[in-house]
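Re: Re: ligand-bound prediction request (bumping)

Still looking for help on this. To restate: I need the protein modeled with adenosine-5'-triphosphate bound, output as structure tokens. Inputs repeated here so nobody has to scroll up.
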Amino acid sequence: MNFIVNILSLGIPFSVALLIASLGEMFNQRAGVFNLGCEGIMAMGAFLGMLVPYSIGQGGPTSGMYNVLGLGLAMVVGALLGIFFAFVVVTFRAPQGIAGIGLQMFGVGTAGTLFRHFIGGTQSVPGIGNFPIPGLSKIPFIGPIFFSHNVLVYLAFLFVPLAWYILFKTPWGLRVRAVGTNPRAADSIGIQVNKVRYQALAVGGALAGLAGAYLSLAQVKMFSDEIIAGRGFIAVALVYFGHWHPVKIMGGALLFSLAQALQLAIQGQGINFPYEFAVMLPYVLVIIVLAFSRESQLLGPTSLGIPFNREKRI
Amino acid sequence: MELTQKKITNLRMEHITKRFPGVLASDDITLEISEGQILALVGENGAGKTTLMNILMGLYQPDEGRILINGEEVHFRSPNDAFAAGLGMVHQQYMLVANMTVLENIALGFKAAWSPYKLDLGMVRDRITEIAKKYGLVVDPDAYIWQLSVGEQQRVELVKTLCLGARFLILDEPTSALTPQETDELIVLLKNMSSELSIIFISHKLQEVKDLSDKITILRHGAVVFEGNTHEHSPSDIAALMTGHEVDLPLNEEPAPEGVPVLDIKNLNVKSDRGFLALKDLNLTISSGEIVGLAGVSGNGQRELAEAINGLRKVESGEIQFYGENIANKSPHHIIEAGMGYIPEERNTEGIVPSFSLKENLILKDTEHDEFSNHAFLKNKAIDKNAEDLRVKFDIRSPNISIAAGSLSGGNIQKVILAREISRRPKFLIAVYPIRGLDLGAAEFIHKQLLEIRREGIGILLISEELDEILDLSDRVAVIFKGQIQKVLDRKDANRRSLGILMAGVKDDQTV
Ligand SMILES: Nc1ncnc2c1ncn2[C@@H]1O[C@H](COP(=O)(O)OP(=O)(O)OP(=O)(O)O)[C@@H](O)[C@H]1O
Ligand SMILES: [Mg+2]
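Reply:
Sorry for the wait, this slipped through. Here it is.
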């Protein structure tokens, strides 16, 4: 029983970076653009997020405020990188796959270089501590699993219904879905297709930045070159996995992270199981589920990856 | 631009010129229309009708020329500007988002319902109800677009345009996918509406043009070749002016062929997209060398039948015997290789790959055959020659054979599909609305082609809502109603009246 509680209470905070990044990527893709540069934006977010508390706030009494500043900076720069990406793929209609890989390398490389310049070696920050919710966190089993995490964990899960609401119940969400599915129709009815795509990419970038900062401030509490460890790419895969729907994406993020927690637990418990296989587990699981989940083309953004050009008929 | 409620008493397009790579789509066009008038814009496929209207709506920028409303020059940089001035357009290719509901599609343009944090769908719903009542146009606001038939989508487009408050309507081939009855209703509706708004109406069906319009403008190769008052000209005059020669639709007057049954459908059950049975124990047999017309109001199972035969829709139970083999639930590839030809209803999504070139689209089904491929390599010379030949033979209007098929005009896309399917010489052909969107000259040509391949012994299932087309071409006529064949008539027994009664679902024993 304890083993299960451990896995669950470990897996849930693990899922947060993936969840935030993939919800951001969901907005990108719903608007018809896939951003493979997510990983790069996350790396920048991770570096900038810890830079502020590290360089000015180190452990001081107001470190909470510096954490917030760090998160904010990560989001702002993330949004700017999203807009830069939009400039390349929306305005100049560059192929999205290639441009995304470029952004990924740029982000990871820049973050690493800046890190060596400003911080240097492995330095940890106090980061964002846990905030067990009074009362609720005392409930046996439920408490440690759901109510003993840092604030960002709670916020990330609140963001799932919020993202759903934005996507399906607001005019902006309607525009996003329309430009990702049939930009020509959206254009003919007066929607500014490229403007909406810019906005969606800015939102996606901000969330990717936040996800990165979560890793360096709340999960690992330090920065390293490998801190993102492919989570940006997993986030992109999770969007497909979750059929562009916030709730299913959350399911995917949880599945992956719980498998990861299980994997760590197996290693930690010294169970006699080849650790190489344990490490593979989460990835294999995602591939299996992807292979068996039926593609619902009808619901997804059918113009994903296609730049919009009004005077071109195709 | 400010939203105005001002009336459009006069709209004028002056010296409009628009070039696309290799095409002069609009050649110094001047056009004028006053309040309460209905102007019919006609011309062959690729003449430039849609382009001109896209310019008027701010979708394309003209290279030269200007637009004046009530004598004042206007600049439409996007459709928003055109909406603001009171213009609205129903496009030839529907502008609907397939994975959203009717309600959401209309809300997309209904800015009054947009508050920053909430989309007021209730307000849009009320507006739809209001328009539906006022004009008698019934749509289901909660249906997803992908669930609707083409005819229903067309109605949604019209409702959408009216909901958004258009005071000047542009209708680009609005009747091409409507049933004859729906067409009649639309004509009456538009006539009534013309008291309060001006309409530009594009159609290839000259009887409609005659019934509806006050003035007529004919385009050819991007230029105006004729302008006049509709009541002074007969439909056949207009046809001759349009094509440059007398149009004479051919008739199938030959004796019934003595072929053997080649397509034998037994107790076929197939579900629709919405999950209910669209075909219920349907039976139909077609022999080689005969044309069987399938008459019926659209939505009675025609689409499902065509898709099931071609392996594009799951068969729940029953058999489709094709040259002695049951092809039910076989793969489309298998069925194509067995000799089935198919002219699908949805030309852009099923008939062509829009981003592929014209010549590639013409060999899509034959990429594995020796004619066009040499083991792993394509035979480019043969492909080019094939495309050049078909372009001339089928009069496909395009600057060259390497242009993306999606950039062709609607009617020319249809010609590409027809050219491919007919020239492949299949053993059997399913033709769904083969002349939808074609100009009269092209329709005449296609009908001749269908009769020619019939003479070669190819059986044809002709699915159409145009009774004239069915009566002109068929050896036998089968009437479909609610997923079953009501009755199969010989040509001599079929006429508009008898078919109309059967199509409405009246069993024959009640009529005699
Ligand atoms: N966006 C575009 N890019 C390139 N060529 C185009 C484009 N739009 C139209 N054309 C070309 O301009 C010409 C006129 O096309 P248009 O669609 O206006 O014809 P149409 O009169 O509406 O024909 P139809 O009756 O078949 O609909 C065609 O040769 C077409 O290939
Ligand atoms: Mg057209």
